[in-house]
Automatic annotation (TrEMBL):
Residues 4-182 form the Ketoreductase domain. Belongs to the short-chain dehydrogenases/reductases (SDR) family. It comes from Crossiella cryophila. This is 3-oxoacyl-[acyl-carrier protein] reductase. Keywords: Oxidoreductase. The lineage of its organism: Bacteria, Bacillati, Actinomycetota, Actinomycetes, Pseudonocardiales. It comes from the Bacteria.
Amino acid sequence: MQSRVAVVTGGGSGIGAGIARALAGLGHRVAVLDRVAEGAAGVVEEIRAAGGSALAVSADISDPGGVDRAVGEVTAAWGPVGILVNNAGFARDNPVLDMPLADWDSVLDTHLRGSFLLLKATAPGMRAAEWGRIVNISSISALGDDERVNYVAAKAGLEGLTRAAALDLAPFGITVNAVGPGVVQTAMTTVSAARAGRTLEEHLEVQAKSIPRGRIGTPHDIARAVLFFAAEDADFVTGQVLYVSGGPHG
């Protein structure tokens, strides 16, 4: 596999950190982009200690200027971006009638607006190279989930962005796909447990029983799917959404 320049948003923790490590393990130069500078720096240190090449970049991806500065920093260091993984996001859960407008806006701005801005900032370089891989991290919640109307709308929108952008960019050698994780143990799992009124251990046990595979997912499970979509020879697979959730979902 040829070494590429990769950007992973939300790469300072959880699923994003797992994806960043996996890409670096294949020899890619990985920009770990995160709003929390300390998290990005920690992942970069781990990658470098393992012999990989990584760069920490801090930015608010909902801000066009911040995105342009971040991509410019990566490009100045290594050249055009070849692989983009739009992973950054967070949850602000509430029933639809209790959803504050600020929570609606903040979740949509990061998950959907941010992914669009990163795509717009990196795709021209991919088009010039006639090669690019864009992988958006969605969720099985895109299929519907209670008391998460902002998160569900953001992830469903991200899948729509994936399919539409795939059609626009296919003639230029750029693929756009999405990975939809199921239950994966990250820092957000603790938040979900509290929301359900359970301890983390109780929550993981309940969730595992609902998964046909019988276990909770890991960041590595998601990273493996991302690596498939980002592969050099995966150029005939685009506009797809792959749910990595331990069993089928309708």
